[in-house]
Amino acid sequence: MAYDGLSSTTTRLARACGRQQLTNPITSSGNSLFVRFQSGPSRQSRGFQAHFRQVCGGYILTNSFGTISSPLFPANYPDNQNCSWIIQAQPPFNHITLSFTHFGLESSTTCTQDFLEILDGNYGDAPLRGRYCGTSMPHPITSFSNALTLKFISDSSLNADGFHATYAASSSACGGDFHMAEGTFDSPGYPEVYPSNVECVWNIVSSPGNRLQLSFM
User: Fold this and answer.
1) How far apart are CA 189 and CA 192, in angstroms?
2) Which residues belong to any copy of the CUB domain (predicted)?
3) How far apart are CA 101 and CA 92, in angstroms?
4) 11 with 91, same domain?
5) Which CATH number is 136's domain given?
6) d(CA 186, CA 188)
7) DSSP bridge pairs for 130
8) pTM
């Protein structure tokens, strides 16, 4: 039997016995599976062989803050990846701020080999906030909706060490909570003109025992 999580008290995904064939892969909703094998006191058989592998993306992140990274980070990401994540704000929050702490993908002038796309929403044709590749760190992005969708694509040629980012839910379309040692943020719409009648608040928290230094570029 296979369960979606780390115990048999979670959702059961599959149960098999005899010569039953499980033709479709079993995919968890998160980063863990619980598999249980039990044999009876009488007849035995040849058993089974199973293979597991990490499948990137494909699930919804609903915590008020957390981290997200490319497959195998900080090691190089594999070839031929097609990953997607949805970061969903839960009430009372209705916006998401995404801030990168590391970014390194294959470089190309059109970002068509390895790239990361960020969409403002949780549906396929949501507005595109940006497509990124190379080693230039993207500026923090705050959603105008209550969700952000990340799509990561890699081809079969060069690869790199990928990306790592933090996210935080907020009740404002600007500002947010940063739980990190280093990062950058901007006024709304930067480098374009910021809108009128906007108030933004950023809470920046590093590890205990340290101070924070703020510099304006």
Assistant:
1) 5
2) 1-55, 56-170, 174-217
3) 26
4) no
5) 2.60.120.290
6) 6
7) 118
8) 0.67
